[in-house]
Amino acid sequence: MAVEHLPVAARESLDQEIEGLDALDAPRVERERAARRAWRAVWPKLAAVFGVLAVWQIAVWTGWRPRYVLPDPARVFSELAMQIGTVVFWSAVATTMRRAATGFALAVAIGTALGVAVSRSRIVRRAFGAFITGLQSMPSIAWFPFAILVFKLSESAILFVVVLGASPSIANGLINGIDQIPPLLLRAGRVLGARGLASLRHIVLPAALPGYVAGLKQGWAFSWRSLMAGELLVIIEGRPALGSQLQFARELSDAPGLIAMMLVVLLIGVLIDSLIFAQIERRLRERRGLVDAAA
Amino acid sequence: MEPSIAQAAAPPEIPSAAPPAIRIRNVSQTYHGGHSAIQALDRVSLDVAPGEFVCLLGASGCGKSTLLNLIVGLYQVSAGSIDVGGRRVALLFQEPALFPWLTVQRNVEMGMRFRGVPAAQRRSVAQELLRLVHLEGFADRRPHELSGGMRQRVAIARALAQQADVLLMDEPFGALDAMTRDVLHDELEALWSRSALTVVFVTHNVGEAVRLGDRVVLLSSRPGRVVAEFPIALERPRRIDSPPVAGLAAEITDRLREEVRRHGR
User: How much is the pTM?
Assistant: First the structure.
């Protein structure tokens, strides 16, 4: 190729001009220290938690409900501390997390395949596009009677509903991501020789990634919700799970235990969102320059 | 105002005896949008010699971009013919159209990736090209960290990495400030003069066309049609503000205005 053999001749003044312009245009940005950044992210959350606890405590003090129905935070946290020391608690967490991981993984596989199919084929889109959105708005708990009929009171019934709850969101996220790719990028890809699968792998999917991740995040939230609903209804003997623990606590009128379990469910949901999805989203946005430096 | 059509119908003169790098014959293109149809190009004929730098000049609606998209094969030619003799054609857009999720280096490598060039070779070619556009220090940056001019240079490197014989440029410096644009003119001229590249450069900036081109081809608007050609025999390297360039630019501007006025009636 002709260009490779070009001598980079002595064009010093031009070179200097270019370097000068570039240095002015692209300054290096100093990064904030990790600890400082973490603190700045954490303190508003801590403040919010304390605010909620304060409201709760005040509600208890007013005597709005008897203490055996609405215990104070201290009572709930001591119950939680006690639970954390038991084998049953960890076994319940393990069962629930295993189901969550399996269900979500299945939903990702199915949702992704569906999303690619819909966005690549006009016919598939016409056939399933509206259907997927319809599925997404259907409350997952409405599927349980059917799931229990088909799969009996088994883990498969729970997974079935989790997958149905999560995969439409994931598919829709991917479809939206692909629909929102700037046409110019696709044309740039085509001019560079992108065709078929290579185009999908190197242009379409990376370009659609922000929408896809948003879909995954929503899909996770839906699958966690469906899972809790499932575990309340489908209780398998001898296999404690977070949802079934909730149900047992209610049956025993064990308010502190019930609220402690709810806190665990909430905490796991928040942790997974903030430790996994929020991190992925932040990195994506930073890389693509979608973060306002002044903010 | 009709002699322009006679001029357009005659095949353009080719200075050299070599067969043209791009041969455009009677190309017409019509867009159908809703109930209306717009004729973008009307029997455009143009030859571009190998190694020539041709600037296509015209006001809005002259079908400049359409013509480039036809040459590169993004659109199908509906009437007439375009022959590039099997040459590899690269197209540069007005916007850099870099892939924001990739580093500068990987952006440059993208075309080679699609051709199946091994990774090690991809890397070295990309580094060489980044050196050529004076961005070797920015290989690991992301597009958003660069200025508009730097991004456009990355896009140039990415287009060159296609090992193209023909480089089509669609108002590539239109969105840049004057200072950066002047520097990029020098850069592009230096790059072209040291290679065998054939360049077709679309612009609506007359000064830029005279600054860069061996030949300036004036297109009319709606429909696009070749109305006049101006060989630019000025010595290189040129300056956009030098008296001969400015004088010729003024002359061509008058002709362009005349074209635009015809649409006012």
Answer: 0.79
